[in-house]
Amino acid sequence: MARLVEQIVRTLSDSISNEPMTHRASHIPAPDGEAITRLIQSLRQLMFPGFFGPMLEEVSQLEALVQRELDEVERELTSQCGIAFRYWRAAGETGDPHDLSEEEEASCRQRASQATEHFLQRLPVVRRLLALDVKAAFDGDPAARHADEIILCYPSIRALTVYRLAHELHVLEVPLLPRMMCEQAHRETGIDIHPGATIGESFFIDHGTGVVIGETTRIGDRCKLYQGVTLGARSFPRDGEGRIVKGGQRHPVLEDDVVIYAGATILGGDTVIGSRTEVAGGVFVTSSVPPDHVVAAPKARTRVISREH
Q1: Which of 9-23, 91-105, 136-150 reaches the highest mean pLDDT?
Q2: What does the pLDDT read at residue 56?
Q3: Bridge partners of 285?
Q4: Most confident of 80-89, 251-260, 299-308
Q5: Confidence band (pLDDT; 50, 70, 90) for 202?
Q6: Which residues does residue 192 pair with via DSSP β-bridges, in sequence order?
Q7: How confident is the model at residue 150 (pLDDT cuts 50, 70, 90)?
Q8: What is the tens place of the pLDDT at every residue in 227-247?
Q9: Residue 283 CA, distance from chain mean position
Q10: Edge-to-edge strands, sheet with 265-267
Q11: Are 208 and 137 in contact (CB under 8 A)?
Q12: pLDDT grade, residue 1 (50/70/90)?
C-alpha cells in the first residue's frame, strides 16, 4: 500500500506541475474567502442596520453603529484590496508568479487605499439603490406583507446587495475580489449576477433561483425577472489560434420597465429588449424586440386524459 501511495503522489505531483494554470507556488496569497464573508456581513449591516448584525434598540444608536461598521469595512477592505492587487500583479496576469519590487508593493498599497476611499464614498448611493430595490420587491410581489419580509427573506435582495457593492469594486478595477463576493452570493441564493453587469434602479428578481445575468448585460430602470431567466451570450468570436476573444458586448440589453417571465432565455450582445416589453416564460430570444411588445411562444397543446380510459 505504501508503494502504491508513493506512486500516486509522484504521478499526481507531476500532473499538477505540468499544468501551471492549476496550481500556484507563491508566498503571495490570494484574497481570503473567510475575510470576504466578514466583509459582506459588515456591509449588509451598513446597508440594513438592525436587520443584520446587532439589534438597534433605539435610533440614537444608529450613528455609533454606522461608525463602528464603517471602520471595520475600511480596515478589512483595504487589506483585501491590497492582497488582490498584489496577487494579480504577482501572478494573475501571466500565471507565472514573481516577487514584487518595492515600487510594485508601494503601487499596490496606494491603489488599495484609493479604491477603498472611492468605494466608501459610493456607499450612500448604493444604499439608495438598495432601498429602491426593496420597494420594487414589495410593490411587485402580492405575497409580500411587509418590507421587513423583503429584507430578511428574499434571496433577490441578498444577491443584489452583494452585486451592487461588488459592482462598485469592479468599476474601480479591483481584481478577483468582486467575483469572489458575487460567487458567495451565488452559492447562498442561487442567483448568479456578474459584478460587471449594469443594473438600473428599482430592480426585482421574483423567487430568483437559477437566474443568470452575464458580465456585459445592461438592465434599465424598473425591470423585473422571474426564476430561471438567463441573460447570456449567443456566440464568442475567436482569434487565429481558436481562443475566445474576451471583452466586448456579449450579453443583451433590457431597456426600462421590461418584464421577463420564468425560464426565458435571452442571448446576444446585439439583442435589445425595448422598453415596456414583456417576454413570456420559456421563450428563447436571440434578436431585438421593439418597445411595447409581448414576446410569446406558440401555446402548447394540453391533453387531459381520463384514467378510466
Answers
A1: 136-150
A2: 77
A3: 266
A4: 251-260
A5: very high
A6: 212
A7: very high
A8: 999 999 987 777 777 777 777
A9: 24
A10: 192-193, 212-213, 230-232, 265-267, 284-285
A11: no
A12: confident
**pLDDT tier at 94, thresholds 50, 70, 90:** low
State the cell numbers at 160.
443584489
From the list 197, 189, 184, the residue with the least C-alpha distance to 223 is: 197
Grid cell digits, residue 56: 438597534
Q: How far apart are the two ends of the chain, measured CA to CA in Å? A: 63
The CA–CA distances, whole Å, from 252 to 136, 217, 231, 276, 288 equal: 22, 5, 6, 16, 9
- The span from the CA of 149 to the CA of 104, in Å, is 47
55 pLDDT band, cuts 50/70/90, is: confident
The DSSP-derived string for the chain is -HHHHHHHHHHHHHHHHT-GGG----SSPPPPHHHHHHHHHHHHHHHSBTTBSSPPSSGGGHHHHHHHHHHHHHHHHHHHHHHHHHHIIIIITTS---PPPHHHHHHHHHHHHHHHHHHHHHHHHHHHHHHHHHHHHHHH-TT---HHHHHHH-HHHHHHHHHHHHHHHHHTT--SHHHHHHHHHHHHHS-EE-TT-EE-SS-EESS-TT-EE-TT-EE-TT-EE-TT-EEE-S---B-TTSPBPP-S--S-EE-TT-EE-TT-EEE-TT-EE-TT-EE-TT-EE-S-B-SS-EE-PPPPP-----TT-
C-alpha cell at 25: 507556488
Amino acid at 60: S
pTM of the model: 0.92
Which has the closest alpha carbon to 276: 250, 258, 263?
258
One-letter amino acid at 136 equals: A
Assess contact for 161 and 203: CB atoms under 8 A.
no
Domains of the chain by range and CATH? 26-190 (1.10.3130.10), 197-298 (2.160.10.10)
